[in-house]
């Protein structure tokens, strides 16, 4: 074989593998099993609500799913509490909402919190003008409470010196205060605690019933009372981000100096402490920032989820 022939052979020899590696991925790509679109998905409704409605219509008991999503037992097993989002500058057709059996609980910015019949979720999303998206509320989750604070911090030395928190108003934001009456009866809490329910609008401070859902708030209040026995405690019930905003406003308007919240609100921000809003709906960091801007010290639990959370670099 002469040199020219040898060169042609080399070119052909190298070209064939190139064709193989070029066309093989294309061939495989043509046979990929592309997943079908999600069933029962709705552009204006979270997948969870779609699943809830589907199971409800199939006769499955939806009460357990509702309770799990909201961390509460629903008042009506046939209804679910939702956030109805609207675009900034627009409003939701309230008459159409009522016609479909829904009841408005509260409103703020571009969010309407409403109780909607489970079987009418799709109908509400399709027929009520102004709704851009429907989702479950951003629920507040209690974290573990364990304390030997007085001994560890030697707070009793300050108490003996007259520093008891007298004249200071402290708010405890929590999802429930089961056992509150017993704690007061046993002198674990003072009888002058102020009970406030911010799950309604406006917040009800006329001695509402807040001894439900959880005993977490009572345990937190007892710890704070141990550390500052002279302070006036405002026990404020909240369940989600909208309640949290209302509770903050109540604190601002009632001269409260310190807010304690031993709750977490997962998946509402980027865990970097920055306030941001989506379509006019602010996250809880903004609520805390506004409290600080109004001279309120916001004290939040931290570290309880340290072994259960990962934040990439």
Key terms for this structure?
313 residues, alpha/beta, Alpha-Beta Plaits, Rossmann fold, 2 domains, 11 helices, 36% helix
Set out the fold topology:
Elements: H1 3-30, H2 47-57, H3 63-70, E1 79-85, H4 94-99, E2 103-108, E3 111-117, H5 121-127, E4 133-135, E5 141-142, H6 149-153, H7 155-160, E6 169-174, H8 180-185, E7 194-197, H9 216-227, E8 232-237, H10 241-253, E9 258-261, E10 263-264, E11 277-278, E12 281-282, H11 284-293, E13 297-300
Parallel strand pairs: 6-8, 6-9, 7-8, 9-13
Antiparallel strand pairs: 1-3, 1-4, 2-3, 5-10, 11-12
Please state how the strands of the largest beta sheet are arranged side by side: 7-8-6-9-13
Enumerate the spans where pLDDT stays under 50 for 5 or more consecutive residues.
Answer: none
The number of helical segments is 11
Secondary structure tally: strands = 13
Radius of gyration: 28 Å
- Proper CATH architecture of the largest domain: 3-Layer(aba) Sandwich
How far apart are the first and last residues' alpha carbons, in Å? 61 Å
Tell me the series of helices and strands, N- to C-terminal. HHHEHEEHEEHHEHEHEHEEEEHE
User: What quaternary form is this?
Assistant: single chain
| Biggest sheet architecture | 5 strands, parallel
């Amino acid at each position: 074989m002469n040199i020219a022939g040898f060169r042609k052979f080399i070119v052909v020899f190298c070209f064939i593998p190139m064709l193989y590696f070029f066309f093989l991925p294309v061939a495989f790509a043509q046979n990929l099993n592309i997943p079908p679109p999600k069933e029962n998905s709705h552009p204006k409704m979270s997948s969870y609500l779609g699943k809830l409605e589907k199971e409800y219509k199939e006769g499955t008991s939806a009460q357990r799913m509702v309770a799990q999503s909201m961390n509460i037992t629903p008042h009506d097993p046939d209804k679910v509490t939702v956030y109805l989002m609207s675009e900034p500058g627009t409003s939701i057709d309230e008459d159409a909402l009522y016609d479909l059996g829904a009841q408005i609980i509260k409103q703020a910015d571009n969010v309407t919190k409403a109780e909607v019949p489970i079987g009418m979720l799709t109908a509400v999303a399709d027929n009520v003008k102004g709704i851009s998206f429907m989702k479950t509320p951003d629920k507040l989750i209690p974290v573990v409470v364990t304390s030997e604070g007085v001994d560890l911090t030697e707070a009793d030395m300050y108490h003996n010196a007259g520093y008891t928190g007298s004249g200071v108003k402290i708010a405890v934001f929590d999802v429930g205060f089961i056992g509150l009456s017993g704690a007061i009866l046993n002198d674990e809490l003072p009888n002058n605690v102020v009970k406030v329910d911010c799950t309604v609008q406006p917040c009800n401070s006329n001695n509402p019933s807040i001894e439900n859902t959880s005993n977490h708030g009572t345990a937190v209040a007892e710890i704070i009372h141990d550390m500052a026995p002279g302070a006036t405690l405002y026990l404020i019930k909240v369940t989600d981000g909208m309640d949290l905003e209302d509770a903050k406003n109540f604190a601002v308007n009632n001269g409260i100096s310190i807010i304690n919240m031993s709750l977490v609100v997962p998946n509402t921000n980027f865990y970097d402490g920055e306030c941001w809003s989506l379509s006019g709906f602010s996250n809880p960091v903004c609520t805390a920032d506004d409290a600080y801007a109004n001279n309120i010290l916001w004290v939040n639990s931290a570290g309880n989820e340290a072994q259960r959370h990962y934040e990439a670099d």
